[in-house]
Amino acid sequence: MSVLRIASVVALVALLAACATAPYQAPGKVGPPPQAGAVLRSIPLDPALEERILALDPDHVMAADVRDTLAQVPAPRIVLIHGGIYPVYLAMSSFAEFLIGMGYPEKELRRPDNVLDSFYSYSPYQDSRELAGIVAWYYERDGMRPMIIGHSQGGVQAVKVLDELAGIFGEKIDVWNPVTDESEHRTTIVDPLTGRVRPVVGLSVCYVSAVGAGGAALLLPNQWSMVHRLHTIPDSVDDFTGFSISGDLVALTFAGAKGAADYHPNGTAKVRNVFLPAQYNHVVMPATRDLARREAMRAWIDAYVPGKPGQAETMPKGDNDGALWAADVWYSIKKHWCLELQRLIHARRAALVAQ
Known about the structure:
The chain contains ten helices and twelve strands. It is an alpha/beta fold. The chain has a single domain, classed as Alpha/Beta hydrolase fold, catalytic domain (Rossmann fold, 3-Layer(aba) Sandwich). The strands form four sheets. Strands 2-1-3-8-10-12 form a six-stranded parallel sheet, with helices on both faces. Strands 4-5 form a two-stranded antiparallel sheet. Helix 6 (128-142) packs across helix 7. The longest helix has 32 residues, at 323-354. The protein is globular.
C-alpha cells in the first residue's frame, strides 16, 4: 500500500465524524405541488421523439443514443451523497462533472438550494427522512423516480434512505423541499403518473449504488441503526449495486471475505455485488472527472456492459483509478434514464386514451 493511500485512510478514520456544513437557506419558495395530471400534460416531447425513446434498448444505450435522443429530453434527478470527512465532497463533485461530461444534464445533478460548498452532493449527516422527502418532492414534479449514489458513509446513508421509504423507521415522512431545505408539512404526494394521492412511505427509486460503505462509518451514532441493516436491501429500489474495494481498511472489505460484504434483497429488489481492484483509493474513489475528458477512455466507458468478460483487459492505458466503478454506474444511469422516460411516456399515452 502506498504512503498516499495509508495517509488517506488514516485521515478518513480520524476525521470521519468531523464534517457537517450547515446548508444554505435559499430565499424564496417554489410554487405549490402540481395538480393531478399536470406533469403528464407538461412533458415537452413530440411524437417522433417519443418513438425514438421507446425504441431504445435500456440494456444497450450507446453514446449516440445519449447524444441524439436522451440529451434532448428530461432526466431523473440523481441524489449524490458524499462521504463523511471534509472536504471529501470534492470527490463527489468530480463524479458529478464526470456524469456531465458523459452527457447527463447538470440541472438534474446540481443542488437547487445554492449551498455554499457542496454544489452537487448531500452530507451523510443530513437526516435520512429529509433525503427520503426530497426523493418524493422530485418524483412528484418530474414524473421520473430519482436515483441515489452514495460514497463511504454516504453509501450507508443511501441504504438508510431506502429503509425510510420502506417504512422501517416510521409510518410517515414529510415531503422535503430541496430548494428551501424545509418540510412542506405534508406526508403525501400526488402521484404524477396515476393522479392519485399516495404517502411518501412506500415510494421507490429506480437505481441506487453504494461504494465503500460500512466499517468505520457504522461506529458513528447516526448510523448505529444500520449496523445490522446495511447489507439488506428493501423493495424501495428496483436496482441496487453494492461496490466493495478489495483490502479496504476503512469499509473493512477484503478479497478473501466477499460474502461478509455482500448485499442481499429481502424481497423483489435486483441486487448486484461488485468487488473493485485493491489499488482503488477509498477516500478519493469518486474523483473521476478526467475519465470523461479522454476520448479513448470515454469510448470504453460508453461501451461497458456489467459482467461482460475481458473488458478490464481492453481498458485504455493511463490513470484509470475508479474507471470500473464509473463505467458500471454510468451503465446503470443510462439504463434507468431510458426506463424512466419510457415509463413516463407509457403513462401519458394511457392517460390520453382514458380521456
